Structure formats: structure tokens, C-alpha cells
Amino acid sequence: MLIKTTTRAALIAALALTTAAAWPHVASAETVLRIGMTAADIPRTLGQPDQGFEGNRFTGLTMYDALTGWDLSSADKASTVIPGLATEWKVDDADKTKWTFKLRPGVTFHDGSPFNADAVVWNVDKVLKQDAPQFDASQVGVTASRMPTLASARKIDDMTVELTTKEPDSFLPINLTNLFMASPAKWQHFYEKAEGADAKAKSQAAWTAFAKDAAGTGPWKMASFTPRERLELVKNASYWDKARVPKVDKMVLVPMPEANARTAALLSGQVDWVEAPAPDALPELKQRGFKLYANEQPHVWPWQFSRIEGSPWNDIRVRKAANLCVDREGLRDGLLAGLMVPATGTFEPGHPWRGKPTFEIKYDKAAAQKLMQEAGFGPSKKLTVKIQTSASGSGQMQPLPMNEYLQQALAECYFDVKLDVIEWNTLFTNWRRGAKDPSANGSNATNVTYAAMDPFFALVRFLQSSMAPPVSNNWGFINNPKFDELVKKARQTFDPAARDAALAELHAASVDDAAFLYVAHDVGPRAISPKVTGVVQPKSWFIDFSLVSMQ
Amino acid sequence: MLAYIARRIVYVIPIVISVALVCFLLVHITPGDPLVAVLPADASQELAAQLRAAYGFDRPLPVQFGLWLLRALHGDLGNSIATGRPVLAEVMRAVANTVTLAIAAAIIGFTMGILLGLIAGYFRETWIDKVATSFAIAGVSVPHYWLGMVLVIIFSVQLNWLPAVGAGPNGSNSWAWDWAHMKYLVLPAITTSVIPMGIVTRTVRALTGDILSQDFVEALRAKGLHETGVFRHVIKNAAPTALAVMGLQLGYMLGGSILIETVFSWPGSGFLLNSAIFQRDLPLLQGTILILALFFVFLNLLVDIAQAAIDPRIKRG
């Protein structure tokens, strides 16, 4: 009996000790979110990421903040601009090229240095002021074109800064979401330690060192970086926005450019989250309990029409007919397995810049055929159009099958579509050169997808006549005085609500003019382990990883 | 022998310069903008010109080539346009990963290839030969990216024994020859090994069969030499040709496979080349091609020297 009691006591004691020993371990277990990106390399980490908006998503908005940010808290509403490192801003009443930004107090960079007006000026100069020590040509391309009118920055006091634009431009606060604030103190530290023949070489060495050990003000801090293999970020527990302090301790980003490899990595438990899983694996992913997320993105998959002399698209009846001849729902439900949203313009209903177009883009083959007949075409007299596209490319979705779908659909409305398939970078280069350039190979339309996050990217660069090549992306040389007038009006309207109304008017005018063949919006599909909770996929290219928890 | 080595090294110099010139010109004459990685499509003409000048792409091609070659001779291949990182460091890191993969694949492929080849050659026209030859044919016929995916589906997705992608566990910044790292190597190494395995098997089989049918083998047997001794002579006679074939295969493997490395997200030279091509990162593309070409040229040199050392007839020729 004594032995039995002693044994039981010993067992209870051992159990208690084991539990006590295990408890702190369980309580402090580190939560790690592992993500398979579509990028082939970790996007640049030094403040201005490359690789388009995937770069901003993973190494921009995680480690850095900008003066203004995106509201990513809702899956239902369009993402709009909200205060970031600036709490408020206003344009000068007397001189509309001058803006005052009030900065958020109490914010520090990851290295402990304070965020202030000097830091803002330093970060503007890194991409705009060529004689500044920190000027970095490699960061200019991905910055300057996203804020084409920003000219300079000036400190007013520690927490106030003045930004100047080349011309009155109400889009500035939206554009500024792309200018990420890196720590000047940390860079200076690397600059002083750098070796180099001259200041330029030292500056380059400092940026290279900074990229390996970066400091921003964002909700995630860089922990470890292995180029082309992985980036490990840890949560910034002292992030200024307490609601956005990450719930997960660590986030590991892994480049996986191949869709099947990403999917296999998710299925084998090597990662918890993949961007753009292989479409044919979706049923298996669902069956195994993985969660699939998709939402309309500010992204358009179009045909951008040539409007140069002699182009068949100069007849609005032909442009409208093409827009009415495509069964977008069929494309979505068939070829793309639900992974698109039919486009009825650049912005869809519910977006503040949608407006009220009178031309309703929908599938109406009879109406399309009637318009084509009015334009002089029919079953025995087809209209030949040549479209330039690529076999792959960023944001291009599935360009060849989608274009072949359009080819078949439009054939029923008396179009004879010829496809000119070229390499993605070559297509992209021609996008800058325009429809008149020999590299267009005589095409009447180009198929390059575009981001529609801000008014310049979404509308102005395509519709304003002065944005024709080589200035910007008005590939087809659209020259419509009404568009020019509305662009000017929107740019010079500084009340946000009135500016949105002006943009809505411009968008409605472009839809009424059937400026493009609007086909689809991408939906940013991602597959995520059921262990991951709290995911909100907004109507945006971006997503807030701070909200995510791990079970 | 020293004269032979010196002569072979001298031959290498014009090859290297030609390779450098070809890779420099190839990436410049293809359509597209060299600044596509950093220059958005809507960049203004002014910004494009500014960046073109900053990267030196506004200079005449011969000047660009001269400067590039001069810097390359000093070990400076410039910086990647996309990442800003030094090209040499990028390439060497990728090459190190590819070499790791190539070594593992060579061990598997050459061992299996030699074994199967010897067995098939020795037992020519028997069922053993047919089985071994089937392996060899399958090795060279099966698309290796497809095999890679099949292996991933079986061993990663279904059985969950091995990782599907990557080159090491989280938190690891460098390669180590321990199981935590090596398990990432197993599937890509097997996939990479199948082609050299097939080619080596077929070569060794043919050589073995050919040598065994020669008169001197009969003579050796007639003199009463044990079969093991005969086989030693067969191996010695087959070695120079087999070595040359293996050298070439190793060269191909060291060049990295874009498909295999992409399927397994293995950060080697093939993966790097893939990124460089898609981002049209000219300095990275040129640097990667140059280093890989140099690897190939020097590996051939080493194989030639090794062959000459084994077979004195070669250096006389």
C-alpha cells in the first residue's frame, strides 16, 4: 500500500513538474507565418521595392510606412487613402503647388531614431535630388513615375513638412502612398562605415548594406535576409498604430515563381500561405481544407485601342460592338474557374471614381451585331483587327487562352481577330513607344494589364492627349478634348469629395466613349492554411498581415 | 605534359573573350528595354534618359563592352539593375548552390550510370541488359521537370517525407551538410541525376561491350587471367571516354537547370538566369552567362588534362 501511494505521489509530482516545465514553453511558443510569393526574388528591401505591387505588398507596406496609406480593413469597400505617417495635410490656398503635411508624433524607426520632418525631406531627396548623398538611381524608377509631379520637400518645423509639385495636382496624397520612409540615421551609419573611391561609391555601398539590415517605421522589422531564398520579419511590438501591431511573431517570405511548386509547398505543409495557387489545384486545395481568398483588385485586363489615323477603332460603333460582344461571365465561369471579375469599366459600381456611365458594358450579341452592321460590316464583310499580346507577364493572367476566347467571341460579331504574340518585355517596351512605332507591328490594339490604384495610373496616363508616347502610356494616341478638360478639372480640384466626383465624371466619359475593350479584373487569388485566421482580403493589391493570427 | 597544359590554357583565352563578346551582344540586340526592371512603363522620356545615363546604357556598344570587360577582368561584374546587389556575389552564391546540387546529382547519376552500364555491357543481350538499358532510356527520355513534379507529389505532398521547395530550413543563411539541409537536396538531386545517369549508362554499356569483344580480352582470358583482372583492363580502357562524357555532363549540371531549379525553387544559377531573363536584368544576365561559360570552358580544360594524364596517346595527338 505504501509502495502504491508513493508511486502515485511520485507520478503526480512528475506530472506536475512536466506540466509546469511545459507551460511556459507553450505560452511563449513562437508563431510563424510562412508565405510563398510569386516573385522569383525577395523584392528590394531598402525602402522602394521593385517587382511592382507585389514588392510593395511584401517589403514595402510590411517594413515601412508612407505619409499616406491604404485602408485595408474591409473586404467589401473599395480601399481608400487614409493618414499614415502624416496625420493631416492641406494644399496652400494661394499657391496650389504647395502642400503642408503634419507628421505623426512619437513615431520611431526600427533603429530607435525619431521620425520627423528631416526624415521626410531626406526620403524625398533620395529619389529626387541628384546631388544629395543618399540619392539612389535604382530607387528613382519605381518612385518618380508614381508621383510624377512631386518636385521637392522642405522642413517647416520638426513635425511639419512642405511638399511642392511642378503643377497643381490634387492626386499627390494618393501618389505618396508609394514613397516609403527609410531611416536616415541607419543609412548614415552605413555610409560612414562604407568604403569606396568617392561619395557615390560610398552611397551605393551604404544602400547595399541598408538593404541587408533595413529600418523603416512599419509593423514588421527585418530579422534575417537571404537573397533569393527568404526574408524573415518579426513583429514590431512598439508599432505606433496599436491596432496594427502584428498578432503573429514572425513572417517568413519565400520566393516561389512556379505555381505548381507553390501549391506543392502549401499541400506539404512547408508554407502556410501561397499567392496565386495553380488554378487546376483549386478543387484539391478546397477538399483538403485550405481556404481560398479572392477579391476584385484595382486591375484591368483590357484591349487598349489604337486611335491613330486609319484605325478601325476610330468608329465608336465598332468600339461599342466589341465591348458588347464578349460574354465575360462565360469567361469567368469557364476558362478562369471563377478567378476574375467581369469588367464594365476601369472601376466597378461602389467605387468612388465609378460615376454614372450611360453606355452599359454587358453581353448583348444582337446589339453588337447591329452596331457592326451599321458600321458597314457583316458575315460576308468582316473587320480585320490585329492585337498585340504576350504569352505571359506580370498581371497578364492567362493572356493566350483569354485572347483566343475573345477571338472566338468577336468572330460572331464580324471581327476577324489576328493575334501578334510577342515576349512580355518587348510588349511592355512597345507600350511606351505607342501604336505608331514599328515595334507595334501594325497592331490596332495592345493587351497590357494595368493597375488602377490612383487616378494617374488608372485614367490620366491613358486618356490625356499629352500623355501620348513617348511621354506616357496613351498608347493609342487618344485625343479627346473632353478627356483633357476633365483631367485638368480633377487635378485642380483639391477638395477630396469634389475631386472624386471629377474623377467619376472622367471615368464615366471614358466608358461612354468605349475607350478600351474592358474585359476583366484580376482577383488576387491566394490559398491559405486553415491554421491561419483573421485574413481580410480587401479590394486592393495589398493586404494587412498585421490582422492575421495563427492557431 | 606541362607544354600540353600550357597549350590548352592558351587555347582557352580566345574562347573566353568570344564567349564574353557573344553574351554581351546577345542581350543587347534582343528587343526590349534594358531598364525594364527599374523603369515603369509610364516613365517619362526624361526619367528614362536620366536612368539610361546613370547605368551607362547611353554609351556606344563598343564602349560599353570595353568597360564591362575591363571591369570583369578586375572581378567587378557591376551591380544587378533589379536588386542593386553586386553581380559577382549574386552569381557566386547561386553557383555555389548549383555546385552543391550538381555534386549530389553527379554522385547519384554517375554511380548508378557506371554500375548499370558495366552490368548491362557485361551481360549484353540478356534480360539484365534489357532492364538496365530501360533505366537508361527512361533517364534520357522522361522530361525531368515532369519527373520533379511527380516526385514532389509523391514524397512531399502525399507522404510528407521531404520538402517540396527551397534550399534549407528557416533561419538558415548558408548551406550545411546535415540532414536538416540535405533533405532539401534529395528530390532535386534525384531529378537532376536522371539524364547523366542515362547517358553514362549507355556510354559505359557500349564501351564495355566493345572492349569485351576485342581480341586482347580473349588473349587475357587465354593467358588464364581471372575475370576480375579482365574487368580491371576493361575499366581502364573505358575510363578516358567515360570520363569525357561525365565531364561534359558535370559541365551541364554546373550550368544549372532552369526548369529543375524553378520547379524546386532551388536558388542556383538556373533559377538566377531565369530571374535575370524575366527581369531583363542585363548586368546580371551577362555576369551569369559569363561565369557559367567560364565554368564550362575550365571544366573542359580539366577533363582534357585528366584524359591526357590517363591516356598518354592524347597529349601526343
Automatic annotation (TrEMBL), chain A:
<dbReference type="Pfam" id="PF00496">
    <property type="entry name" value="SBP_bac_5"/>
</dbReference>
<dbReference type="InterPro" id="IPR039424">
    <property type="entry name" value="SBP_5"/>
</dbReference>
<keyword id="KW-0732">Signal</keyword>
<dbReference type="InterPro" id="IPR000914">
    <property type="entry name" value="SBP_5_dom"/>
</dbReference>
<dbReference type="GO" id="GO:1904680">
    <property type="term" value="F:peptide transmembrane transporter activity"/>
</dbReference>
<protein>
    <submittedName>
        <fullName>ABC transporter substrate-binding protein</fullName>
    </submittedName>
</protein>
<feature type="signal peptide">
    <location>
        <begin position="1"/>
        <end position="29"/>
    </location>
</feature>
<dbReference type="GO" id="GO:0030288">
    <property type="term" value="C:outer membrane-bounded periplasmic space"/>
</dbReference>
<dbReference type="GO" id="GO:0043190">
    <property type="term" value="C:ATP-binding cassette (ABC) transporter complex"/>
</dbReference>
<dbReference type="InterPro" id="IPR030678">
    <property type="entry name" value="Peptide/Ni-bd"/>
</dbReference>
<feature type="domain" description="Solute-binding protein family 5">
    <location>
        <begin position="80"/>
        <end position="445"/>
    </location>
</feature>
<comment type="similarity">
    <text>Belongs to the bacterial solute-binding protein 5 family.</text>
</comment>
<dbReference type="GO" id="GO:0015833">
    <property type="term" value="P:peptide transport"/>
</dbReference>
UniProtKB/TrEMBL annotation, chain B:
<dbReference type="InterPro" id="IPR035906">
    <property type="entry name" value="MetI-like_sf"/>
</dbReference>
<feature type="transmembrane region" description="Helical">
    <location>
        <begin position="135"/>
        <end position="161"/>
    </location>
</feature>
<keyword id="KW-0472">Membrane</keyword>
<feature type="transmembrane region" description="Helical">
    <location>
        <begin position="181"/>
        <end position="200"/>
    </location>
</feature>
<keyword id="KW-0813">Transport</keyword>
<comment type="similarity">
    <text>Belongs to the binding-protein-dependent transport system permease family.</text>
</comment>
<dbReference type="InterPro" id="IPR000515">
    <property type="entry name" value="MetI-like"/>
</dbReference>
<dbReference type="GO" id="GO:0005886">
    <property type="term" value="C:plasma membrane"/>
</dbReference>
<dbReference type="Pfam" id="PF00528">
    <property type="entry name" value="BPD_transp_1"/>
</dbReference>
<dbReference type="InterPro" id="IPR045621">
    <property type="entry name" value="BPD_transp_1_N"/>
</dbReference>
<dbReference type="Pfam" id="PF19300">
    <property type="entry name" value="BPD_transp_1_N"/>
</dbReference>
<feature type="transmembrane region" description="Helical">
    <location>
        <begin position="101"/>
        <end position="123"/>
    </location>
</feature>
<feature type="transmembrane region" description="Helical">
    <location>
        <begin position="9"/>
        <end position="29"/>
    </location>
</feature>
<feature type="transmembrane region" description="Helical">
    <location>
        <begin position="284"/>
        <end position="306"/>
    </location>
</feature>
<feature type="transmembrane region" description="Helical">
    <location>
        <begin position="242"/>
        <end position="264"/>
    </location>
</feature>
<keyword id="KW-0812">Transmembrane</keyword>
<dbReference type="GO" id="GO:0071916">
    <property type="term" value="F:dipeptide transmembrane transporter activity"/>
</dbReference>
<feature type="domain" description="ABC transmembrane type-1">
    <location>
        <begin position="95"/>
        <end position="307"/>
    </location>
</feature>
<protein>
    <submittedName>
        <fullName>ABC transporter permease</fullName>
    </submittedName>
</protein>
<keyword id="KW-1003">Cell membrane</keyword>
<keyword id="KW-1133">Transmembrane helix</keyword>
